[in-house]
Amino acid sequence: MTPDPTPLTVTDEPHTEPVVSPSLASAATHTATTEPVQREARTITLEKLNAWYGDQHSIKDLSLTFAPNQATALIGPSGSGKSTVVRCINRMHEEIPGARASGAVKLDDFDVYDPKVDVVAVRRAIGMVFQKPNPFPTMSIFDNVASGLRLTARKVDPGHVESALRDAGLWEEVKDRLRKPGIGLSGGQQQRLCIARALAVEPDVLLMDEPASALDPISTLKIEELVQELKSRVTIVIVTHNMQQAARVADQTAFMLDGQLVEIGPTSRIFTNPTDSRTEEYVTGKFG
Amino acid sequence: MSSVSLQPVSGRRKRADRGARAIVALFTGIALIPLFFILYYLLKEGLGAWSWDFFTTDPTGSFLGDPGGIKSAILGTIEMVAIATAVAVPIGVGVAIWLVEYGRQSWLATGVRYFIDVMTGVPSIVFGLFVYITLVVTNFGGASFAGYKGAIALALLMLPVVTRSAEVVLLLVPNTLREAAYALGAPRWKVIFKIVLPTALPGMVTGILLAIARAAGETAPLLFTATIVNATTFNLGDRMNSLPALIFQDVGQAQDRLVQIAWGAALTLVAMILILTILARLVQRRSRLS
Ligand SMILES: Nc1ncnc2c1ncn2[C@@H]1O[C@H](COP(=O)(O)OP(=O)(O)O)[C@@H](O)[C@H]1O
Ligand SMILES: [Mg+2]
Q1: B107-129 per-position pLDDT tens digit
Q2: Low-confidence residues of chain B, pLDDT below 70?
Q3: Where residue A70 sits, what CATH number does that domain have?
Q4: Domain spanning B54-288: CATH 1.25.40.10
Q5: A150–chain B nearest CA distance, Å
Q6: Whole-angstrom Cα distance, residue B174 to residue B191?
Q7: How far apart are the C-alpha atoms of A272 and A251, rounded to whole Å?
Q8: B113 in contact with A at a CB cutoff of 8 Å?
Q9: What are the domain boundaries of chain B?
Q10: Which atom number of ligand 1 is nearest to the Cα of residue A85?
Q11: Quick one: which of B78, B147, B174, B223 has the most CB atoms within 10 Å?
């Protein structure tokens, strides 16, 4: 594997980094219509991941790989552990009192759960978008996008905020009201604002936990288009309970049941020719 | 073919509805009557006492001659309440942050919460007695009664109110906001100071104002800590006058003029709290727009 130009920083915050000049972001800033600039994202590998909430064993020996520059859909009935898996990847799982995880989560060769690793660095590298849009209510649109940089003690360059908003497909709609509150936007716009907020930190991976399930069909479509575009620079893990959505956006699909991986494969194969009968039952709507 | 028919609301249900409305309206009216009379008497009796001299001269203490104004009481109340606020608000908000963000359901947090509940229910005179016994009788700091001792009694009184109200507001901050901040890589102290506190601020101001209003109107904690004097002082080590104490003293006098001063002082106290509330709202509104 080639060494990455921007290695993960394993230091204590706060520290100030020079504004990592986003070559792809500046390209997008000046010529909105050009091809998205390709950037090599990272592979996520889960090895024998186990997760508990107190005594409840929610994820059992899960091993799977999320390929770089691809969107992988996690499907499965509610309660099967999709959100938990996603939250283990950026170590949000441990924020819940009584919750713990074991096993390995690797970002390329880098062990996310290495005791020497700073969670802050992990979460900078692995962005997250939640089910319900959650912009910061006290902040303007601009400040919401800049918040990830400010909260991790980095400089904010207005051009950087603009490119994040462009990448999230929101710039044209908000460029004249950047100083207005973020919660004044519609639900779909708020969700794209949250995506811009996550992108502004320049993550290598974007985790999306049912990002469109609280949105109307048109907003959902916009989010799906966005997932397609963003693949050129980040690895995407998208949880969805909507099988059509998985079929539309995902290169790979993983089916989970009761905290275990049933099978993973190219999306078209999972939906047309699954190897496991439980997958077939699920994708054909027999249960879940 | 039968068309859908919707029955009209029955007469009994209409009557029951009207009855319920009448009862609620009646209770609202009953609750408003005393409020109305309080305001009415305050204005009727108090406005007559107001004059330029009323606000700009100290009480003379003379029973037969010119009774003077209430300047020392206004300034004393402002000084002591300001100091009590400066002490109680940071501590109270700090405790609330600890309870919500760190202590959560631990036994220590549960104990602290219980203790605060008990403190909320303690009568104000007990705080006065406590400061009296520990700081006044012992001549702490070289003097018996002092303005700062009154401020301490008021701060003790405010502390549980501030803590409890701040805790309630902090609990109202949606967890999804904390999660969003953690997911961006924010360390915990930044999540608290940059996300949680700003979101909770408007609600916290309300609780703090309630605590201030309560402290500003308390007589009992001040009577044996700062006591009652005539002269204005800015020395916190001196005995200090206050509006509630002055009202307490003057309203019991046989002189109508003194009783009217008490009314004027009471109206002043209400007006001061009203102005403070309006100012706080204005500041809040401005900060939310920027
Ligand atoms: N905060 C929590 N506390 C306790 N149990 C939880 C919590 N979150 C999820 N669980 C449990 O973990 C299991 C997996 O949940 P989750 O990952 O949310 O599933 P999904 O996202 O697939 O619906 C479920 O059995 C659920 O009850
Ligand atoms: Mg879920």
Answers
A1: 999 999 999 999 999 999 999 99
A2: 1-3, 286-290
A3: 3.40.50.300
A4: no
A5: 9
A6: 12
A7: 14
A8: no
A9: 12-49, 54-288
A10: 17
A11: B147
